[in-house]
Amino acid sequence: MVSLFGCTSKSGQSSGDTQASQPRAKSVASQELLDTSFSGRDASGGGLRGLDKNPSEERLGGRGSLMTRADLRGTGHQMEGICAEQATAAGRRDVFFVYDSFAITEDVRIALVHNAKWIKANPRVQLKIEGHCDDRGTSAGNLVLGEKRVKAARNYLVELGAAPNHLSIVSYGKERSACEEHTESCYAQNRRGHMLLKTGK
Amino acid sequence: MALRAGVIIGLCLSAGLIWIIESGAADVFLEATRPDFQKIPLGVAEIKNIGGTESPEGRIRLGNRIEEVLKADVRRSLVFSLVDLSSMGLRLDHLGTDPDPSFKQAGEHGVSVIVWGKAGMKSENKDADVNMEGYVYDAGSDKMVGGKRYAGSPSVVRLMAHRFADELVFRYTGEPGIARTKIAYVSEVGPAREVFVMDYDGHDPRQVTTDGFLNLMPRWSPDRRFLVFTAYRNRNAQDIDMIEVATGKRSTLVSLGGLNITPALSPDGNFLVFSSSQEGNSELYRMDTRTKNLQRLTVNAAGDLSPSWSPSGREIAFTSDRSGGPQIFLMSVDGSNVRRLTFEGSYNAAPAWSPRGNWIAYVCRGPKKEYKLCLITPDGQQRVQLTVGQGVDDSPSWSPDGRHLVFSSTVGGKSQIYMINADGKDLEQITFTGTHNSAPTWSPAS
C-alpha cells in the first residue's frame, strides 16, 4: 500500500519501533499520558507508538513517487482533428436552448427546419450534433442535459424527414464552452446544439 | 424538517466567500468531526537548517521549508491547534535531541505537544540526499517521547513533512492523517480535458491521462491504485475507463453505447455503479467488477445519475429529476427502498456521502441561480448551507477523515479547486495554475 506511491519506507513496521524505545520514557509516559486527553498513547508504555527516541533512518521514495512520467506525445492532436471538422460545418445553423431546458422553442424549430432542408438537399452527408450547456449546474447534470438537447434536436430532424443513420450525437455538457464569461449573453452562446459535418469515416 | 431559524453568522474569508451556519448548526458541526473533540494544542519550535548548499536562489533553507509544510499540515489536521510558541518567549533555536527547559513552561501555559527538529543536505552536492529529524515533546510527561528520521532525494522534502504530520495525527488519535492523501481532478490541456493527480495541498500535480480527448469526473478505487472516469476517446459513445495511477495502464470497464458517466466503486471495490443512457435516458446500473454482470437499478423516464455509496456499502445516494428538477434520492444497493432526501429548493445534485456516514454533501441552488454546497443528514432532519456568494460550486468530495471537503468553484472567474472544513471554516484555494480545474475527488488515506 505504502509502496504504491513510491514511499519505500519502513512505515509498515512503525509499531515495532516501540520496542527500541529507551526505558526512561516508559515509566513516565504510561502514567502521565493517561492524565491527558490523548487517545494515541501507547498502552505498552514507551512514549508515542511508532516514534522512537533514537529513531532509525527511514528512506522516502525518490522522484516520480506517484507514477512514471506520463507520455505526453500526441496530447491534443485528436481534439485538433475534431476542431478541424467544425471548420467545415458552415451552412448549417446551430440551435440555442433556454436555461436549464431542452425544449424545442420556436427559435430552435426554425433553425432545425432550415437544417432539415439542407440535409435533404445533401443526402450523403453525415451530421454530428454536439450538445453544450452553460456552466451553471453540475458537470454530470449538464452532460445529461446536453444529451437531452441533442436527442431532442435529432428527433425533430428525423420527424422532418432527415435519415436517422446520417445523424450522430454527443454531449459535452459544460466541458467545452464557447465562452467563459459569467454573463447572460455568454450563457446563451453556450446553450447550443452545434451542427457539424462528419468528414472521413 | 430542516433547521431554518435565521441566526446567521457570517465571516469574510480570504477568497471572498462567506460561510454561514444556521441556528443550531454548531452542535451539528462538532458531530461532523467527532463528539466533544478538543483540539490538542501543538507548537512547532523550529526545524533547524543544517548543512545546505548554494543554488541560484541562494541558500536552500530546507528546515524552513519543511517547517512551513509541517505547520500547514498540522493546521489542516484539525486534530491539533497550532500554537505560536514565539509569542510565549521560548528559546527556539540551537535545539538538540533533548527538549529545551523552556518547554516545561510552555506546557504550563497549556501547550500539550512541542515539535522540533532539523533538516539539511548531506553534502554540498545539489543532488545529495536530504535528511530530516523530528522530535516530539509531550507536556503531560515533560519528556521527549519520540522522533523520526527521514532521508531521501531533494524531491521528497514536502513528503517528509507530510509523513511526520501524519505520524503525529496517527499517534495521538489512532486515525490515519490526510497529509499524504491525493486529489484527482480534471484540467484543461489544449482542447482536451485530462485527469491529473496532485497532493492534497495542491502541490506536485501530475498528468495521468494523455489521450487528447475529454476525460471527466474521476473517482478513486478504495485501494487508491486506480481511477475510474468517463472517456471520450471512443468517438461514438462515452465509455467508463480505468487507469492505474502508478503505471498509466488503462482499460475500458464499461462500453455500452450512449453516455456512461459518474462511476463510483463500492467501498469493497466489488461493484461499480454508474449512469448510462444506453437504453434511452440516463439510468443507474450496477456492475460486478469481477463477473461484469450488469444489473439495472433505476427504472423511470427521468435522468438518474451521480451515485455515491454510503460508507457501509448498503445504500446509494443519487441525483434524479423524476420529481421535476434534480433532487437527491437514497436507495438500497439493489435499487429497492427509494426515497427522496432533499425537498428544499428546485436543484439539488451531485451527492457525496461522508466517510463517517453522518452527512451527505451536495450542490444546492439558491434563489439567484447560485450553485453552492449544502450538507444534509441521511435522515433529512438537518440541513446546512456550507458556501454562499458568487460562482458555481460543483463536485464536492470528502477527505477520508471526514473533516474537509474539496470542490470546484468559479468564484474567482475560471474554475479552480478549493478546500473547506466540514464546519464551513478555513476556505482555501488549492489550484492556481491552469485555466480550468474541476471535478476534484479526494483519495482514500494510505
Per DSSP, the total helix count of chain B is 4
CATH topology of the largest domain in chain A: 60s Ribosomal Protein L30, Chain: A
Mean pLDDT of chain A: 70
Summing up helix and strand content along with how strands pair, one would put the structural category of chain B as mainly beta
Give the class-level CATH name of the largest domain in chain A: Alpha Beta
- Tell me the CATH superfamily of the largest domain in chain B: TolB, C-terminal domain
Contiguous low-pLDDT stretches of chain B (5 residues minimum) are: 1-33
Low-pLDDT stretches of chain A:
1-47, 63-77, 79-89
**The CATH H-level homologous superfamily of the largest domain in chain A:** OmpA-like domain
CATH topology of the largest domain in chain B: Neuraminidase
| Widest β-sheet, arrangement of strands of chain B | 6-3-7-8-9
Helix content of chain B: 10-25%
* Name of the CATH architecture of the largest domain in chain A: 2-Layer Sandwich
Average pLDDT level of chain B:
88
Oligomeric form? heterodimer
Beta percentage of chain A is 5-15%
Instruction: Using the 3D structure, state the CATH architecture of the largest domain in chain B.
Output: 6 Propeller
Major sheet of chain A: order of its strands?
2-5-3-4
Descriptive labels:
heterodimer, A: 201 residues, 60s Ribosomal Protein L30, Chain: A, 2 domains, four-stranded mixed β-sheet, 5 helices, 5 strands, 32% helix, disordered N terminus, B: 446 residues, mainly beta, Neuraminidase, Rossmann fold, five-stranded mixed β-sheet, four-stranded antiparallel β-sheet, 41% strand
